Queue: 3 jobs
Job 1
Amino acid sequence: MYEVVTQITIQDSERKMLSEAGYGDPAIEYYLEKKHMGSIEGASQISFKVGSCGDTMKIYLKVDNNNVVLDAKYEIAGCAGAISAAMATVDLVKGKTVEQALKVNDGDVFRVLESIPEKKHHCIQLAVKTMHLGLEEFKMAQAS
C-alpha cells in the first residue's frame, strides 16, 4: 500500500486561482514573473500614484539623451491585476521615445494581458496613468 503524494507549488496554486478568476495566461505570467518590479538606481524620473481602490504604484524611469525609455520599473502595493498591468505597461514603453510611450493606452495593455476580470480593469488604468505621470513629470523637469 503506497500513498500517492502530489506536490503543488505555491506558483501552481496561484496560477490556478488566477485562471479561475478570469486572468488570461499572459496576465498570469506577468504577475508571477514580476520582471519589472523594483527600483532603478539613478532613475531619470520617479513618480507616485494612488488608485481609487487604494493600490499604490511608484514608477522609476530611465530615459536617455534622445528621450528613449531605456528601462522602467514599478514598486507596487496592490493586487494581481495591478501588478500584471504594470508589468505589461513596461514592455509596451521600453525602447520607445517619451512621446511614443505617452500614446500607450489602456486598450494596448488589455490586449497584451488578453484577459483580466472586469472588476480589475481600473488596475490597467492605474498602471497607464502612473506611467503617463512619470513621463509627463520627466518632460516638465527637462523643460525647466
Job 2
Amino acid sequence: MPEYEDRLILFIDFLGFKEHVDHTIDDPTFLDRLVHALETLREVGMEQEVFPSQQMTHFSDSVALSFRIDERSAVFWMLTQIRLAIFNLAGEGFLVRGAVTAGPLYHTSEILVGPAMVRAYQLESRIAVFPRVLIDPAVIEIARVHRSSIHHADDEEQYVRSGLAMAEDEWLWIDYISYEAYESAGAETDEYPFYLERIGQMIAAGLGHSSTSVVRKHVWLHPCYVGQIELFESIGPQEDETMEAQRSYVANLPTFASEMADALARIAAEDALQAAAANI
C-alpha cells in the first residue's frame, strides 16, 4: 500500500518556455540550444547512487527532484547541484523559477503526488513569481538536523546559506547574480564579467518586452545586476592587471537606467488602468 514519506523536494521550470518554443520555429538552430538547456536541467540529480532515496520526474520544461529528509547533507547537495545548473542556464540565456520545500510526498519513477508537491508548485507559481528559486525556511532546519556526520549544525547551515540571498519579501532564493555566489559555486571567476554581461542583456530585452508580466520579472532582477556593477566600481583600481581588467569590465557594463525608467512607467500606467477599472 502506498504511503507518504517526509521528503525534500525541488520543483523548477523555465520562464517564458512557450516563447522559447516559438523561437525554435523562427530559428531552427535555436532548437539545439533549447534541447541542451533542457538536458542541463534534467542532469540535476542524475548521480542517483549518492542518495538511495532519490527520485526524479521530468516533464516538458519542468523537473521535480526529491529525497527522504533523513538523507545526510541532501539539502546541501541538492542546492549545490541546482545552483550550478542555474548558472549554466543563465549563461546560455535561460532563466528559471522554482522552489525547494519539504513534507509528505509519494514519489516513485512513475508517480509523484502529495502535499509537498502541491506546496512546491504553489511557491513556484504564486510566491517565486520572478526568475528565482525559493528556499522554504523549513529546509534550512532540515539541513541542520540531517547534516554531514563531520559537520556541526551551524557549519552545515552556513554552507547551505553560502549560495543564498534574501529578497525584500524576506524569502531566501538561490543567488545566481553575485560574484560571491558565482565563486562559491565553483565557476570560473575569469568568466564572471562576461556572465554578468549576459545577465544584463537578458534584463535589457526583458525590460523592453511587449508583455508587462515579463517586464515585471526583469524589473525585479535589475537591481541585483546593478548592485554587482556598483560593487566592482567601489573596489577601485587594482594593481594586478588581470583583476583590474575584470573590475574595469564589470564596472563599465551598462546599467540600462533609461530602459528601467520606461519599464517602471509602463507598469505604473497598467496598474493605474487596472485600479480605475476596479472602481467602475
Job 3
Amino acid sequence: MPIPLTASRWGSGPLLVCHPGGPGLHPDYLASLEALAEHRTVMVVHPRGVGRTPAAAESDDYGLDAYTADLSAWIDREARGEPVDLLGHSHGGIVAGLLAARRPRAVRRLVLMATPAYGGDEADTRAHEGYRARRDEPLVAAALDTLERHDRLPADGGALGRLVANLLPLWMGPDPHAVTRWQRRLAELPANPDALHHFNTRVHPVLTTELLGLREIRGPTLAVAGDLDSLAGPDHLHRLAALVPGARTVTLPGSGHMCHLDATEAVIRAVADFLLD
C-alpha cells in the first residue's frame, strides 16, 4: 500500500518532481534545487519516513518497489494524468529511473543526478578506493576515520543525521568552507535509520541486478555526476549510458556525490538546458 507523500514546493509553471536519496536523508538537503524554480514548479517529495511523510508500518518496508509505488501514486495525484519532468539524486535516481522504465507515459524527461549504475562488493570496493585516494585532505581523513569506526548505524534519527554530517567530506569536493557550512546544516536534519539499514543489507547487495530495469527507459534522459564521486562517478555514468538508451552524460569537475552542493550553478544550468531542449 503506497504511503501518501508530502512535498516542498517552489515556483510556478511546468512541474519538476525531485526525489531525494540516502535513502532516509531529510529532503531539505536538496534545497539548492530551488534555483530551478525560476521558470517552473519544483516539488521535492518527502519519501516515506523522512520530512513530513509518515514512516512505513514495518521497519523493513523500504524496498525499491515501495518507494516507486509511493512516487507513482503521488505523481498521479499531483499531475492529474499529465507527464512530469523527474529528477532523482542517488537512491532517489534509482527510484526515478525505475518509475520512468515502468511508466514511460508518466515521465517527460528524466534526470539521474549522482545515481549509481551498480552495487554490491564492486561498488563498495570502488567507493573505498576513492575515499582513500583523497586521504591527504584533512576533512576527508577525519570522515574516513569516522566511517571506519562505525560498524553499525545509530538507531536514533538525530544521531544518524549527525553521522551523515560528519561523513559529508567523503561526498563533497575539496572546498573546506563549503563542506563545513553544509555539515552544520545537515547535522540539524534527522535521517531514517530503518530506510538506510534496509538499503545497505537488502538492496545494495543485489542492486546491479535491480538496475537492469533501467534498460526499459525510453524517454530523454540526462545523467549528471561529479568526477570525485566515489559512489556514482564517471564509471557509473559510463555504465548508465550503456544501460539507458540515448542517455546524455555530464561530468562535473571537482565535485563529489553531493554535486548539487559543490557545483550548484553548473548543475542548475545543465538540468535547465536539458529540460528546455
